[in-house]
Specification:
Elements lengths: L9 E14 L13 E11 L4 E11 L7 E14 L6 E2 L2 E3 L2 H23 L24 E3 L6
Antiparallel strand pairs: 1-4, 2-3, 3-4, 5-6, 6-7
């Protein structure tokens, strides 16, 4: 029997901002869609006094297994307003964010980044590239249930 009390969490996506985008021109003959590799990186910043959680999602696309040829790079930040964030459990300077809410935030970020990348690459040799489906839980911080208030987005 599970004695933990379920928390109802209300939030909204407040802003989406493309922090950076780079694109490398290649001759069509050197591009092989079958050798493309996606690399993801992420960051989280919690600002309890503003009831804000910032998510940064970076996506890089490479055309070789050694990741020497970067085709494009996209960085997008997502600002979520979380009602009652100040009341989330804390320990020292650390606030506990439930995994399921972070997974939901990352799922929204991945889907939105997929659309942004598709739009930015349309009309180029990368127009057939679509951000793959990934498990958003793989982007959670190593300490999955605790995110430091002062953690910087990398």
């Amino acid at each position: 029997m599970n004695n933990q009390k379920k928390m109802e969490i209300k939030f909204r996506l407040k802003t989406i901002k493309v922090e950076g985008f780079s694109f490398s021109e290649l001759e069509d003959s050197t591009f092989d869609i079958n050798t493309t590799i996606f690399e993801f990186n992420s960051g989280i910043r919690v600002i309890p006094e503003e009831e804000t959680i910032l998510i940064l999602l970076g996506t890089a696309l490479f055309n070789d297994p050694d990741k020497k040829i970067q085709l494009c790079n996209l960085k997008v930040s997502y600002e979520f307003h979380v009602i009652g964030l100040r009341q989330f459990p804390r320990k020292d300077n650390t606030i506990k964010i439930p995994d399921d809410i972070l997974i939901q935030f990352f799922a929204l970020a991945i889907s939105t980044s997929r659309g942004i990348l598709f739009d930015k690459c349309s009309g180029t040799y990368l127009s057939e590239i679509i951000l793959p489906l990934i498990n958003p839980a793989t982007l959670l911080p190593k300490k999955q249930q605790e995110v430091e208030k002062t953690e910087q987005i990398v």
